[in-house]
Amino acid sequence: MEFELDCVFLLSSDARGINFDRILGNLGDILSRGAPDGKGAKIDEFHVDGNRLKIKIKSTRYVRPHEAVFRLRKFLSRELGKHRIGIRRIFAPSYEIKFILEKEPKKSISVPFAHLKFDNKECHIYLENLDEEFLRRNYVDRIIKLINEKIERQYYEGKEEYWELIWQSKPRRHFFDKDPTREMVRRNWIMHRGRGQWIFGPIPTKIMRTMEEIVIDELIKPLNFNEVIIPKAVTWDVWKRSGHAKNLYGEIYYLCPPMKRDPEFWEDVIDMYRITGKVPTDMIKERIREPIGGMTYAQCPPLWPYFQGRTIADESLPIRVFDRSGTSMRYESGGIHGIERVDEFHRIEMVWIGYPEQVRKTHGEIIERYRIIFNKILELEWRMARVTPWFMAQEGIINVEDKEKVIGTIDFEAYLPYRGSREESEWLEFQNASNNGDKYTRGFNVKSQTGEQLHSGCTGVGLERWLAVFLAQKGFDMDNWPKEFLRRLGNLPEGIRFL
Ligand code: ATP
Ligand code: ZN
Ligand code: MG
Fold first, then answer.
1. Hey, which residues are catalytic here?
2. How far, in Å, are 2, 58, 60, 75, 136 from residue 39 at the CA level?
3. Number of folded domains in the chain?
4. I need a labelling partner for 232 at 20 to 30 A (CA). Which of 7, 44, 254, 259 fits?
5. Ligand 1 centroid to 161 CA: how many Å?
6. pTM of the full predicted structure?
7. Which domain covers residue 14, as residue numbers?
């Protein structure tokens, strides 16, 4: 790595009379402290121009110039103080960095602030007009990291996930070969409301609630999960800590509060609507604030502020809680999908926190409970696969080679006969169960009594997807539905007849 920073120290007064040769000759180890012998940053040249001291700093990866410049500032403040000169500000007209990439880019990339040039595996970063904050807050390191990540991603494009089958049920006989969403619409069980949102009438609601009760009776109660209510409007601080702020933007339903509550502020909007009968969304746009966050995407992150920065007593561990207090929303980019891919959906989410062994054990117990539910009660044809988004595998967040394979996500997938053959069609992920390791406990700085790092896990039961899977395999003739499910369902309500 080679760094070259042109920086300017803006001084409180003219410094032409000062002997900088002498001052800068006495730097000692200031620019090399912490670096191996002979390495460290060096002053390549300097020049005084009135109240501007211009310095060019060069270094390799040890004591990079954006670090060196602050060491220099401290030193110079002391020295110039003797001449009653202060340092007002630092800025950098230019900063050039040359480094060798981990992999050669397949096509060119861009990142904010920087102008990039690639020469095989060599990358040149050109930065201009940088302020102190830019240097101090290590933007440069993040830019380098981002470049490497973006290139790495080019190698995984198209390959979204690492996928490994770990268990598969035996094939079952199915009783339906059509898309259950269409059939439910035909029967007036459900109604599509634009934007991937559905109204569920009494019949499918009863089925989904029965499924929910099955999860409560067979999993939540026996494993001692307690209900909590997690907020559904999520602010940036949460997504910054959960990591979602890194990549979520294309799927968020944003949350924008009004600039003012004051009715006068809204008067012209109201008047416009009263006269035209159209909601003047352009005028509204000018009266709302920038997004403070978005609607729930993954269900558990907004629970974590409860634990943030706190030490959990051993007697409370493992924590086992669940939430079913509202919907999750994702912008799935329009189009009418079946109920299996909707913008607003219902999930039960279970979260557990504990020492690594407790978390691993809970994860295992949950999977066993699911196995009973799908095999004995819903009698589904399904499978489990270990999945890892490629970028996570690459970042080393999850080691896909790990023999123990305790940390990571298990997807539960079901066969949908209407999509084609078992072998060739895409199965539907109807839920997952993750052991998140220390991702959240570190992200939200949650401590244990003994100091040992806590872990956590979560699992989300997607009720729309359970319903879709069940009806796709069992069909609409209740004679073909599993006995145990029927026993729990009781009678279905009358549907609503339209004339
Ligand atoms: P997919 O790959 O199908 O988009 P995902 O990987 O985005 O799913 P996760 O983020 O793992 O899904 O969400 C966990 C669970 O939430 C899923 O297993 C599913 O039950 C439910 N879910 C996610 N997105 C939707 C959606 N758009 N509609 C209905 N349920 C959903
Ligand atoms: Zn979760
Ligand atoms: Mg998705």
1. 300, 330, 332, 341, 349, 411, 429, 432, 458, 465
2. 12, 11, 8, 19, 21
3. 3
4. 259
5. 14
6. 0.89
7. 2-156
